Amino acid sequence: MDNDAFRDWSRRAADWGADYRAGLRDRPVRPAIAPGEIFRSIEASPPETAEPMDKIFADFEEKIVPGMTHWQHPRFFAYFPANAAPVSVVAEYLVSAMAAQCMLWQTSPAATELETRIVDWMRQALGLPEGFSGVIQDSASSATLAAVLTMRERALDWQGNKKGLAGQGRLRVYSSDQVHTSIDRAIWVAGIGEDNLVRIPVSGRFRAMDTAALEAAIVADRAAGLLPAGIIACVGGTSTGGTDDIAAVAAIAKRHGLYLHVDAAWAGSAMICPEYRHFWAGVEGADSIVFNPHKWLGAQFDCSIQFVREPEDLVRTLAIKPDYLKTRGHDGIINYSEWSVPLGRRFRALKLWFLLRAHGLEGLRKMIRNHVAWSEGLAERLAREKDFELSSEPMLSLFSFRHRAPFGTDPDEHNLRLVDAINTDGRIYLTQTKVDGRVAIRFQAGQFEATAADVEAAFDVIIQVARRLG
Fold this sequence. Notes:
By secondary structure, the protein is an alpha/beta fold.
């Protein structure tokens, strides 16, 4: 592809993107296709000779797009959002065109220095104290792994990377069962082992860890010769928004000398609104915090910020400095690859810079406040229907509900059939979870361009499909 063709196809791709976004409401949120359908439509062997871009682009439109779930659809109410505000998409065009590898300061000085500034902008926006610095990771999974590796190394007096885990004390990490499964995976990858992730009982509306049980578990483990390493607390858990008492957990962590990591991957974005910060009161006592601007704020995936109180601990855990990665003649610079598990790094800060400037914090606050209000309103409307009940009260813009099953029908099977029927209908997209061992249907409002009318439409779809099914 020469430069003229590159220019032409870049414009056509941008036009396609704008048309795609403009027409999303006319598409079903999730495709009605059978597994393997797309696979069978793709040629079984790679082409030996070059094909024209017209044909490639036509195949993209005919074979790929109809098989996509449309995450930017304004009636996407499943999982948590993976927003991509249009201004963020424009920034990503530029990032893709430059295609920089931003692993070191010297490999892209502007990328490193913008990242430092933007992370501090977000620290201020969230109301965190000046003692925190941070790094843009690819996802909360990577940030949590980095935190678990750091708590492991600190508990082992920085000998785990050098000597391995054999012969070391048996490490213990504590969390509730409301945390994301990325915590389990981090425990596996860090070599701590699933059996050493201690699940603390939860209670209350927000299913917070029982802090008395947490402290008792730490004391009992120490008495048994085990080695408590850290605590992973939750603000806005994936299932129902589970949220721990961060101040109480931080006090326990400090009392016992444990590393505290706070997972606020989804709900952290809402902390740009001062009235929601009570959900993580005491967060200044954490050693690290993760939140995902690529969920609710509109910075497209991937863009996850990990704040740390002691960056030296993170670098001591992760940094490897071969001679070919040293920057000669400069002291005091930041090489963010030393703050991350991967060496390679994309230029993630640019889309946040564009986003924050194009919308301003007040524009983003208005969006989040709307989503919370609309979701609370929908929960109230469903709760007033005689054949519906709330399984969990709204936590910000997330709640769950159940439909009363017809007589003689298994309630869990009925609600699974209902969520499948809603998604097959195509007008909205929801997911299921379990609340207190029973199947429930999750709803969250969070798509960047959703309107009050979209949430009202969700009520109509839920009621229509449930009554038809029941």
